[in-house]
Amino acid sequence: MQRFYITTPIYYVNDAPHIGHAYTTLACDALARFMRLDGRAVHFLTGTDEHGQKVEKAARDGGSEPQDFTDKVSQNFRDLARELDISNDDFIRTTEARHKACCSELWRRMAAGTAPNGESNIYLGKYAGWYAVRDEAFYGEDELTTGPDGRKRAPSGAEVEWVEEPSYFFRLSAWQDWLLDYYSTINPDFIGPNTRRNEVLSFVKQGLTDLSISRTTFSWGIPVPGDPKHIMYVWLDALSNYVSALGWPANEGDPAGLFAKFWPADLHMVGKDIVRFHTVYWPAFLKAAGLEPPRRVFAHGWWTVEGQKMSKSLGNAVKPAAMIAKYGLDPVRYFLLREVPFGQDGDFSQAAMVRRINTDLANDLGNLGQRVLSFIQKNGGAVVPQPGAFTPEDRRLLDATTALMPVLRHELGQMQAFNRALEAIFAVVADANRYVDVQAPWTLRKTDPARMATVLYVLADTIRRVAILLQPFMPQSMAKLLDQLAVPPGPGRDFARLEQALVPGTALPPPAGVFPRYQEAAT
Ligand code: ME8
User: Ligand 1 within 6 A of 310 CB?
Assistant: First the structure.
């Protein structure tokens, strides 16, 4: 069986989850569900990033011990996954013992190995330079700008501070040629989309400097093996989650273990803010430790809200729970993945959300289901109709759904183009609505009942196929629609059954609208 390992970033617990976090997790969920329905063995991981200076500071600012604080806030991210109906197989916290053991071993392996220039991968030195706690990242002087307030800032807008302390370094400079080779020759599909790939390539071509990978001025983290005054740089700690959650190193060499089954990861999904950590540092760390690099990293774009950056100070962060309460879960899932070409930035506006709900979901898909199923209920004896021979128009509509499978495999599996996948499915929904209008079953009812039955059959089966294909995006609503077509839950809803048509004569329950129009409550 083909395997698929997909991960979200592990989120910092200093912040409450908002629509940006929901977005990444949702995209991964849709892909994980797609792959499962397509017959793959899937492992889908999410979790929380709990060490480092930023989290320690957030805990202390709130008057808590870091462990108590992280225990509490990590739960918000688990709750988010439940609110969004996320199908993750595991949830990792970097404060768990399984993770700490993995980090220590990864460090030891890196330290034991040599870089391509023959020198040791890790050496002790002194870091003197700029650090942004908000990004948990080191910056060169040339990357900074000075604001009107005289403070220096990183390209992300985060304030930086001068840090001078003993530190272990990773000999990243020596991995530059291997990285360029990895991006260009060994694995040209490593980074998506292309804009990000080009950015990373030019960053690496400019020349890499060695990376500070330990800190000594605070203590909330994993100690460096053999030198516990140092704690590991939080990004080395965090990135390791992708292998610690698979049980590495304890199950190394066990062919039935999760690590053997699922590493290297098929896809690390991330936001564009953290692409450098995942595409430069992470493959180099792994290679230095003698492990395989991941197969692909896709960096999606950034959401603003009503044209503004989401921020604590503006207090405009969109809370997923509030959106779900207002619009329903599946409309929110649909909107986020449909509205913006995946990879580009997008703006979350209530007006755009309502437009999508009313146009695509209520008018196009909802109406198709409702008018066909209630017509069958009233005029077709409330059973799956008995079709006669299919005309070319009938075949064209049925074939259109079958033809979607390779398109979806490409757009989702290779390109992570959620919007294009949804566009393709909804083009068939539009075809089906046109087919209803042209075939006019209400007229056939009087002139040619046998043909009416065929038309209704073709429509019911098209709705079944569309509902099966939309399950990864809107699992709960599509389950309701498939219930109304009397398709039992389980393997009958897998992609492999797409062409195993409805059985004429099967009783159909009374239909109920799946996507109501959204109307602003009168004030
Ligand atoms: O960076 N639009 O965690 P983090 C779109 N712990 N996506 C957004 C977003 C927005 N406005 N805001 C956040 C970290 N995200 C590290 C990761 S991984 C080994 C360690 C999403 O809590 C997006 O996926 O700051 C981004 O990359 C991630 O949240 C950052 O989450």
Answer: yes
